[in-house]
Specification:
Blueprint lengths: L4 H9 L3 H14 L4 H13 L3 H14 L4 H13 L23 E5 L6 H4 L7 E7 L2 E6 L2 E5 L2 H13 L2 E9 L4 E9 L17 E4 L5 E4 L13
Antiparallel strand pairs: 1-6, 2-3, 2-5, 3-4, 5-6, 7-8
Helix pairs in contact: 1-2, 2-3, 3-4, 3-5, 4-5
């Protein structure tokens, strides 16, 4: 079966960084001047902490296409972060970082985003922080504000976080006007053992009483509503 670009793209989106590099290298044998393939390789090298290889790869793109915005942006970020990759959460991430598990993971598009210059510093696979403030879940990278979870998802997650559950989040995709993150449940306390952290629109919604007890309340919700409708 012949290798296609879709195979390399799928490996990248799934977080199989080593596999993505191998697939993209194979594609380059057939087409050494494919800048899209080179940019994917540059991203994989960056996530794996191979800054020199990433820099050299992006430089090849610029040599062929001096105005390539992706290569220019990422090359600049590599130079700026060369001495602090680990602190910025760009160090080696494990494979399968975006492996989805029903009820335990969620891909979320943020709302109330920060300025474009902040968003453009983000990279796929970068670790971000979930910070609960004023009944909202803020997303931070270091001390930089990135955005907020939509209220329906945020309010549900706050109840689990305050109850003892633990979560981690990574940048899945980003641009000057959009950021999507991947949230994963790390720890679930016993009182929530039968309750998923994330539900679909057709699933029941948790109703937490002031007494601390919870029950399932069957009602129509907008648990998974479009952030643009907020």
């Amino acid at each position: 079966m012949k290798l296609t670009k879709n195979d390399a793209i799928k490996a990248t989106l799934s977080g199989y960084w080593e596999e993505a590099i191998k697939l993209n290298k194979t594609l380059l044998v057939e087409n050494p001047t494919d800048v899209e393939t080179l940019n994917r390789m540059g991203l994989a090298y960056t996530i794996l902490g191979k800054s020199k290889l990433a820099r050299d790869t992006y430089q090849k793109v610029i040599d062929m296409d001096p105005l390539n915005s992706i290569a220019l942006k990422n090359l600049k970020k590599i130079k700026n972060n060369n001495s602090k990759n680990t602190a910025d959460g760009i160090a080696i991430q494990v494979n399968n970082i975006f492996l989805e598990e029903t009820g335990k993971t969620k891909v979320v598009e943020l709302i109330n985003l920060s300025q474009a210059e902040v968003l453009l510093t983000l990279q796929t696979g970068q670790l971000v922080e979930l910070s609960v403030k004023r009944l909202k879940v803020f997303i931070l990278q270091g001390k930089k504000y990135i955005g907020v979870l939509p209220d329906d998802i945020g309010k549900r997650l706050i109840k689990f976080i305050n109850g003892g559950n633990k979560y981690e989040a990574f940048v899945k995709s980003s641009g000057s006007q959009e950021v999507t993150i991947f949230i994963r449940e790390l720890k679930k306390v016993s009182k929530f053992k039968d309750q998923p952290s994330f539900v679909h629109i057709s699933e029941p919604k948790l109703n937490f009483k002031k007494s601390g007890k919870n029950k399932i309340k069957n009602e129509k919700t907008h648990e998974e509503s479009d952030p643009s409708e907020e």
